[in-house]
Every structure is written in structure tokens, then in C-alpha cells.
Amino acid sequence: MNRRKKEADQHKGWNISISGVFIAMVMGIVLISVVAATLIFVQIYRNAMEQSAVTSSSQSCEQVQNTVENYTQDMRIILEGIVARMRHENNHSEEYIQNLVNIRSDVVAVTICGEDGELLRYWNRGQKLKEHYRIVQSTEMEDDDGRLRITKPYVESLFEGYYPWVVTVYQKIQKEDGTSIQVNIDIRFSDIANYVDDVGIGQHGYAYIADKKGNLIYHPQQQLIYSGLKEEKGMDLKEGTHIQEQAIYTVKNLENCDWKIVGVCYVDEMITEKVSSAVSRLLIVLCLVMGAVFLLGWAFSELFSAPVRQLADDMHRFEKNAENFVFEPMAGTTEITTLSNSFEHMVVKIQKLMEQVRQEEITLRKTELKALQAQINPHFLYNTLDAIAWMCEDGKNEDAEEMVTALARLFRISISKGHELIPIEKEVEHAKSYLKIENYRYKNKFTYSFEVEESCLSYLCNKITLQPIIENAIYHGVKQMIDEGEIWIRIFEDGEDIIFQVEDNGIGMTEEQCREILRKEPGDRTGIGIKNVNDRIKIYFGSNYGLNITSELDEGTCVTIRMPKVREEEYEKK
């Protein structure tokens, strides 16, 4: 019974409402779907942003490439025009060069140097030549591959008080006498630098110029690089797009010189920030969707679960007061109506069964009373009274009085106010009274002893448990012996159980006879008491309890009874 109660309590622990399950299920499905869609969207959006960043960086670099190429191509044309006139060396050449310097504000000076770097001629806008000056000149003869020769940016220092930032485009001319001269055009580099500074790829991206050997030509943050506060990683990259962990580098080579344009844009700015912004908006939409799903799910579940909760409440009321419960069918969906009708039929059927069980219990009590009365064998009562009368006639008044007292005690305990369970102490007293009477009747043909643990006396057992077993030991065991018989009654604890043993040294039985005793029906003339005891114990406590008989021929028989420990306060609560 305790096990069933624990199982019932465990089932009650699963207190989950249908509406809660429905809302959780719908929200779970929506959440999983939205999260999966969001992850797919974020991946697609990130790839699109990455491609967009690559395209934007490529377009910006291409614009710088075109501008610088056009500018350097213009310088190439000017240089070629000067070189063509220098080959003929006439007065018109000098006039042409001077006019060019005056007209082109980006041309700082035109110089011609000898092989040893000596300044042979120069044209400028009237600045005075320094006494000590340095010419930036290539000392190596280079192959004429058609590419423009151009130096790194540097500060021009040929003229007094005039220090422009320039690059020099140059070309060497081989003269007929075997000597060579170099024509230099110093071009103001600030025009190119200003254009490169204005190029932005995103908010923090930029472009810079390097040569194909990986040397820096111009960088918007050049001072930071030279001072070691910034490191630029893209100067050694080849032409194309290079996506790295924190930045995207786009490299464009100039066709007419050894320079290349490198565009830099940051992943965090161009991709991560945009993706994060998109995810934030998606999360807001997700929260709104989940809120709407919750409200719709709650409204829909209430339509279905409210009648179910009412039906559950009716079931709880039915559990508490099934006998007087009256159920009123409820309306609702087809499923609810079906459940309501089924529950109504079940209530009516259970109440009928309860009434039937009540009547059967009344019948069972009457039957038990008859069975109890049947335990008092009329033949046993007649013989006992006859023995008492004989004792009175023979003057054994004290023995007769003791037998009458034992018989009265036997009846009183047998009745036990209608209780099925009595203390083991009373059951032992009942057995002793019975043994005393039988011992008088058979003139001490047998002896008996009790070994009872004191701790067992307060527990309860089925009434008239030992008497039928002892009776069987007397009539079918020691009564038929020539020698004096012995009967031992033992009661002791075994874990959570109580063990009763009734052992005799009688004639014994075969295994088949032992099994047959427990199978005898009420119509049989012998052994009914033992089967009655076994059936009552199993009905009351379960199939794990009851009798077990072991016996050997000419050795004796031992009947073992197992019952659970039952305290009086537990029995009174039932």
C-alpha cells in the first residue's frame, strides 16, 4: 500500500497544463525555425556584405589606379617631348622646356645631368640654385622596357629657400660620342598625395601606393608607420583581393610604372558591424513574433484547455467524494464533448461498482463471521466441556476451573471485537489457552514451548493464525505417536517482516501432502484451517506473504508463516 501511495505521489508530480505544453511547443517550433532562418540569413548576408566590401574596395582602388596612371602617363608624354627635343639640341628646345615649367604648376623643375651626376642644365621658375646641392639620379643603365622610371617621393633641395615634395621621372639618353645624359622632371607629389588622402573605403578604410618590390611610396598614415606606431601588412601582396581576419586588401598594379595601389577596408566596419546591426533588428523582430505567437497560442489553448481544466477539477472532486459526486456534462469541441460523455459514463459505472463492492463487503463480513464460528469445532467444544465435567466429578475442581478460564479466554480473543488484526501478544495468549485445553484433553501426551522475541509482541497479526496450525500439529502429528510429542512455537523478526514457526516431532508428511494441504477447498474435511489462514494472510497483505510447509516422514513438520510488521497506529488509520 505504501508503494502504491508513492507511485501515486510521483504521478501527481507531473503537474503540466495542456495550454502550457501547447504554447511551449508552438513557441519552440517558431523559435527553432526563426533561429535557423536567422543563421542562414546571417550567413548569406555576411557573404553578400563581404562581396560588397570587396567590390567597393576594388572600385575605389581602380579609381586611384586610373587617376595615378593618367597622371604618370601625362608625365611620360612630357618627358618624351623633352627627350625628343634634347636629341636635336636647338634654341627652341630650351624655350619649350621653360614654357612647360611656367605653364605646369605641378612641374617644379627640369634638370639635365651628366654621367657623373653633374648638373648640366636646369629650368625652374626663377629660384636660385644652391652652391651645394644633390641630384637624385639613377646610377645604373636600365633596359628600355617601355615603363616610366620614377623615384620615391623626396624633398627637393636644389634651390635656396624652396623645398617642395616631389617625385622625379627620368630617362637616360645615349649620345653619339658614347656618353650619356639623364633628363629629370621633378613633379610636385602633393597633388597625387591629396587625391590618395581623399579616397575612403568605408569610414576608416584608405588607399596607399607602394612599389612592386614592397617598398612604401606613399601612405596617408606615413608618419605613424615610420615612427613604428602602425604596421602595414599589405605591401608584399600580389595583385588581386586578399581577405584576412581583420581587413580586406585590394591590390591594383599600374601598367606604365612599377607602382601599385593598395586599398584597405576593415572587416569589422564593412561586414561585422552591418551584420550585427542586421542581427539586432532581426532579434527585435523575433521578440515581436514570439510575443505574438505567445498571445495567439495562449488564446487558442484557452479555447481548448479551459474545458479540460474544468474536467480535471471534476475528476479531483470525484476522487475526494466519489459516492456523492454528481457530474454535469460540459459543452465544447467534439473532443471535449466525447471526454465529458465518457467521464459521465465512467462516474455512473464506478458508483454502481462501489455500491456493489459495499454489498459484497457486507456479505464478506458475514462470511468471515461464519468462518470464525466454524473455527470453533463443535466436537472440540463438546470434548472440552465433557473433560471439565469429568474433572468436576473426579474432584479436580482446580483443574476444571483452569480449563474453564482457558476456554473463556479462547472465545474472548477469537471474537476480538470484530477486528481482523490483533496484537501478537493476544495471538500468543490465544495459542497458549488452546494448548492448555488440548494438553488437559490428551492427558499431557505432548509438551510445548514458546520462543517469542519481546519486540514482536506489539505488532499486529491476523487473529486465529496459530491455533489452526497447532491443531494440525496435534491431530496429524504428535497424536499418532507412541512416544511423547513436542511442539515448538517461535516468533521472531526478519527485517521488515515477522516470522511465525510451529514445529513438531510428529510422523511428518510427504512433499505432495504438504502441497495438498494448501490446496484443500472448503468442502474437504481436513486441513481447511491451514488453507483458511494462508488465504486470509495473502488477501490482507499480498502474495509475498503466507504459509510455507516443510516436513520429513518420521522426523516432523515445520510450518512457517510470514507477515509484514504492522503497528497498531497504522491499522487504526485504515
TrEMBL record:
Q: Where are the transmembrane segments?
A: 20-42, 282-300
Alphabetized, the UniProt keywords read: Cell membrane, Kinase, Membrane, Phosphoprotein, Transferase, Transmembrane, Transmembrane helix, Two-component regulatory system
Q: What is its EC number?
A: 2.7.13.3
Gene3D superfamilies named in the record? 6.10.340.10, Histidine kinase-like ATPase, C-terminal domain (3.30.565.10), PAS domain (3.30.450.20)
> Is Transferase among this UniProt entry's keywords?
yes
- Membrane topology qualifier: Multi-pass membrane protein
GO CC list: plasma membrane
Q: Which SMART domains match?
A: HATPase_c
Annotated Histidine kinase domain residues: 462-567
Catalytic activity annotated for this protein? ATP + protein L-histidine = ADP + protein N-phospho-L-histidine
The family database entries (InterPro entries) matched by this protein are listed as: Bact_2-comp_sensor_kinase (IPR050640), dCache_1 (IPR033479), HAMP_dom (IPR003660), HATPase_C_sf (IPR036890), HATPase_dom (IPR003594), His_kinase_dom (IPR005467), Sig_transdc_His_kin-like_C (IPR004358), Sig_transdc_His_kin_internal (IPR010559)
Stretches assigned to the HAMP domain:
302-355
Single GO MF annotation: phosphorelay sensor kinase activity
Localization, per the record, is: Cell membrane
Q: Does the keyword Zinc apply?
A: no
Q: What is this protein called?
A: histidine kinase
Q: Which organism is it from?
A: Coprococcus comes
